[in-house]
Predict the structure.
Amino acid sequence: MRRFLAGTTVIALLTAACAAGPGRPARTPGAPACDPRMDAAFTAWAAAGFSGSIAILKDGAFECRAAYGMADAAARRPNTPETVFSIGSVTKAVTAAAILRLADEGKLSLDDRVGKILPQLRGPVAEAKVRQLLLHTSGLNGTHGDDYERLSPDEALAAIGRLKLAFPPGTGYVYSNSGYTLLALVVEHLSGRGYRGYLGSAVLRLPGGRVAGGFWDGRPAAPGPRAVGYLDDGRPGHQGGFSGPYWGLEGNGGLAMSTPDLASWTHALFTGQVVTPASAALAARPGWPLGDGRSETPGWVAYDPSLYGERFLSAAGGGGDVGHNTVVAWVPAQRRAVAIASNTASNTASNTAGITAEALLKAVGPALLAGRPLPRPPAAARGGDLGAIVGTYRLDGGGRFQVAAEGGKLTVSAAGADAVRALTSPGEGGTESGGTESGGTESGGTESGSTGAALRAHEQRVLALLNGQTQEGRRERASLEKAFGAVSGLSLAGTITQGADTRTYVVLTTGKGPVLGWYAVNDQGGVQAAEVPAKPPALTFVPSGAGRFRPDDPTGAGPRVEIAFEGRRMTLTGARGAAVAERSG
């Protein structure tokens, strides 16, 4: 299986106190009580699937620390405010702070060429400036290694040097995990204490001397009880123990903290207690425009007041093999830090669909910002006997759906491009996807409009990758053939949006038989996330009354499709219209 840590950004803002609990709030003794109405609302969100922790800090004092759900479902061990979560790509904010601190110490300039600092670095990225790496404008595209590939510093440096640039440094933007690993190599070289040593001894140290968190794998480890993460298919995620070396993740992921530690560290950073006040201001200053009122800063994304009436910064991380999602926001005018972490994936195929930290923030953020009562998740209707509708349903175009029932819910998985399109009908602001069979070099699509064109373009980039038409694609093809034997063909199996990813599913014809996988690539064709082999895309549904079912997605962030059963027919109705499938088993 191959998965990468995908960076994401939050799209809503939490700016008021909150509370939580699986059935009742779980608070740290002595912590301030949260508003009872918020407590009741967040208890409802916990019952609907949110499992994790929340911390809100204002002017250095906690307004709220709370925890929801289970840190370990099998052991019935609950989350607490002290529970440790992987913070994923929020690690980049810490790496950026390490670079800014080295600049404060006079050990580098942000306008230094990285090749000047690391003379052994080869390839075109050697001409990029440190500032450009911080803002993802170096042109680096693709990945230098998998998350848990054993890479030494020298091996990581060599692999990064072999990457091609999507554009000359400073002339464009492409999010790059490898760029932040290169920054970690700069820290390793200049700090005198190594990357991990420098973070633990200087960058993560809070006022008073306590260290905020540590690493998920290796040392210094984040102290405290850990949450078990749960992946898209409901399986437990990676729980630490990888022996390293860690240079597939160093700099771009790998750190872990409790949410109170993350909120405290964020407050310390932006109030000039981790770096100088001038460097803290630089971290908060818009650096590269991303559109829609957003700008990249060193390690963060800045949102201007046109979006939500208040300027703020955010960083978020998720994906990969751990199964956690973490988001942190800083509101300068309020001197408020908000950190949320979750340990259940959204849209799982195991009838345990969870609500991620980012999805919860999106659902409740606008109401919190406006001072309105928090929305609550919709309640499911009673569904009756679901066993009679379990089975396989086929579309005229050849696609099929597998329907299973458990715990009063349905899980519907799709195979075939037409089935994937019907099941993943876009919600508000969603995108549409086409896709036809391909002998290996062609891509099709039936949807029209700009969003359909964007999805078809994504499919084209995935096909180019898997047909070895790019440097990264040739490496990917070789990796696939090493694992599964010769790849003699591939076909598109549909494209969906899930969270921050656009995922194109493909069926590979290999020496070991057909293999299903999915890829998420950026506009330059670089892999952002991937899973091979993968389970078919699936949604969990709950009864909505009168024999109909809606997605088990109380935040409304996923596909908007309703299903109904009559006799041997299943009808799926969404933004693209209705699709009718006949039962065949």
